[in-house]
Specification:
phosphatidylinositol bisphosphate binding, alpha/beta, 2 domains, about 10% strand, Phosphatidylinositol Transfer Protein Sec14p, CRAL-TRIO_dom_sf, CRAL-TRIO_dom
């Protein structure tokens, strides 16, 4: 048995208890070791008063799991995650899922975890721009806040061996790319590299055009080679089905699921609203820099310059 109570819902279905035990054994995790390591993390948190009190055993257990049962990696993740919450409040505060700006932005673009895991325990997360004609109303800060809410909720409630990230760029153009300020992109790359512990097995770039593929190739030079080797640009549903099992894909991707992606998005929206109290409590958890002894972790600048300086063939 695992230490914590298992979470499950139609919107974020979890592996059975036997599968969770199997996944834990891959990292030599046992009920006794989990209990001891959670206590070790609690003791460490007390010794570092600038960090918040994390009273959610499920969150600590999953942090250990995503950090491959390494106490040191788990500590580094906790330090970085809650420091970034303090440094970038524009993305980590005001997380009430009923706020109109968070509701409205999902009608333009969505980033949603698919309800079912693959048979091998992978969580597929799918991005899609629905209405490029409304891009003038797109609020990138609200979209990122919403996305990080999803990731944060998963840290506490989801047990997935790895993530497959699918970016459907069918409706994305350079005009769409232009709504994301460069300074925000730099912040997002820092957050993406440090704030969440999920292990990514594949980045699938689906139906992009030549210009976007050139930008993606440039962006790959700024991320670790280990991750760039997992980026795959593909076109067509046949290729997508080779990488993502049809049985978990939505109906509008010729998957076997009865729901469309839009219906899955609506189901996920309902899940976030159902957990509104959790988000409101969690948004206050961050580092108190006045109590910190020493410097916060150092962030490396991801890139400099502007897309205006990039010449594309």
């Amino acid at each position: 048995m695992t230490i914590t109570t298992s979470y499950n819902s139609k919107a974020l279905q979890q592996p059975c208890e036997d599968k969770i035990i199997e996944y834990h054994k891959e990292f030599q995790m046992s009920p006794e070791s989990i209990k001891n390591d959670i206590q070790a993390l609690r003791d460490w948190l007390i010794q570092n008063p600038h960090l918040p009190n994390i009273d959610d055993d499920g969150r600590l257990e999953r942090i250990l799991f995503y950090c491959k049962n390494s106490l040191e990696k788990s500590k580094r993740f906790i330090e970085k995650h809650y420091t970034l919450r303090s440094q970038y409040p524009e993305f980590f505060a005001h997380r009430d899922p009923t706020l109109s700006k968070l509701v409205d932005v999902e009608k333009i673009a969505t980033y949603v975890p698919l309800p079912k895991l693959t048979k091998t325990g992978q969580r597929v997360v799918l991005f899609k721009l629905y209405t490029p004609e409304n891009i003038g109303n797109f609020d990138p800060e609200a979209f990122c806040t919403r996305t990080f809410m999803t990731y944060d909720f998963r840290v506490s409630h989801d047990t997935a061996r790895t993530d497959i990230l699918v970016y459907d760029l069918s409706n994305v153009s350079m005009a769409v790319m232009g709504v994301m300020p460069l300074q925000m992109i730099k912040k997002l790359m820092s957050i993406g590299s440090n704030a969440f512990p999920f292990r990514i097995s594949s980045f699938v770039v689906y139906n992009s055009n030549k210009v976007l593929e050139n930008i993606i190739n440039i962006a790959k030079t700024f991320i670790p080679k280990k991750l760039t080797n997992r980026v795959q640009a593909i076109h067509g549903l046949d290729k997508l089905h080779e990488l993502v099992p049809k049985e978990i894909l939505p109906r509008d991707y010729e998957g076997d699921e009865a729901m469309t992606l839009e219906e899955m998005r609506d189901q996920w929206d309902e899940e976030l609203i159902r957990n509104r109290g959790w988000f409101i409590r969690e948004q206050d958890l961050k580092t108190d820099e006045h109590k910190r002894s020493g410097k916060p972790f150092e962030q490396k600048e991801t890139f400099e310059g502007s897309f205006r300086k990039i010449t594309l063939d």
